[in-house]
Amino acid sequence: MALALGTAAVVLIVLLWELARPVLKRFLARQAQLWAQRGSGHGPAGYDPGRERRAEQRARALLRSCIEEADWSMYRDLGFLRVWGALGERGEAGASPRGTRGEGAGVAEAAYAYLIYPHKPIVAYVPATGELLSEYCVAFPDHTRPYGSARLPDSDDVLAKWMALTADERTLIGEANMHLPGRQVDPDRVRRDLTRLSLWERERAGEPNGSVRAA
Q1: d(Cα 178, Cα 155) in Å, to the nearest integer?
Q2: Do residues 97 and 105 lie in contact, with contact meaning Cβ atoms separated by under 8 Å?
Q3: Beta bridge partners of residue 137, listed in sequence order
Q4: Contacts of residue 134, Cβ cutoff 8 Å, sequence gap at least 6
């Protein structure tokens, strides 16, 4: 009996091995291919390592074509955009539809403004004092890309926020998740950026330094 059971166990093992061998061979071949691709710096078939970089280059070109040159220079040099608020008191200077104003005029014209960062909440602040008011969390995922993150390229994300804010500020702010300053964006970073923005504008005092107003 023991001999018969032993023989049956051996036969079963042999049969299982014969069934599993093709699958195992394919698995090992695939693993060897992946290791070879990693060693040569290539990803899986169909994956383009330069996709992210080219997508961001296209996004920057589109952003530049949609905003004023002064705003593009701000984003290029500082990494964020400013949009003047249009829902509160605007001061004695009144509204300017495209924001072509000299140094300090934006403070007189808008009681508040926004900073738009890539993939960060929109930060509202008071230009006259630098006081941070709130953060508005909005997201524009990219559902069309087959690889990597669902996030838009940085410049596309900035453009989407800019378009939504300048087209319909009230709706965007009403639908966004509002938080106190510091929830996701470091307040010290924002204050440093406001200082950088002030210095940047002083250097460009002889040029139109824009930034459009929210709609």
Answers
A1: 23
A2: no
A3: 177
A4: 123, 124, 178, 179, 180, 181
Return d(Cα 211, Cα 97) in angstroms, integer: 10
Instruction: Parse the chain into domains and list their residue ranges.
Output: 1-47, 51-203
Q: What is the pTM of this model?
A: 0.65
pLDDT per position as a tens digit, 156-171: 999 999 999 999 999 9
Residue 126 token pair: 């008071």
Residues in the chain: 215
Under 8 Å CB-to-CB from 215, ≥6 apart: which residues?
86, 165, 166, 167, 168, 169
DSSP 22-79: HHHHHHHHHHHHHHHHHHHT--STT--TTHHHHHHHHHHHHHHHHS-HHHHHHHHHHS
In sequence order, what are the residues at sequence separation of 6 or more whose Cβ sits closer than 8 angstroms to the Cβ of residue 85? 110, 111, 112, 113, 114, 124, 169, 213, 214
Q: What is the mean pLDDT of residues 125-136?
A: 95
- Residue 51: HSE in the Cβ half-sphere, 13 Å Cα cutoff: 12
- Inter-CA distances, 195 with 18, 27, 192, 199, Å: 72, 57, 5, 6
- The C-alpha R_g of the chain, in whole angstroms, comes to 28
Do the Cβ atoms of 124 and 84 come closer than 8 Å?
no
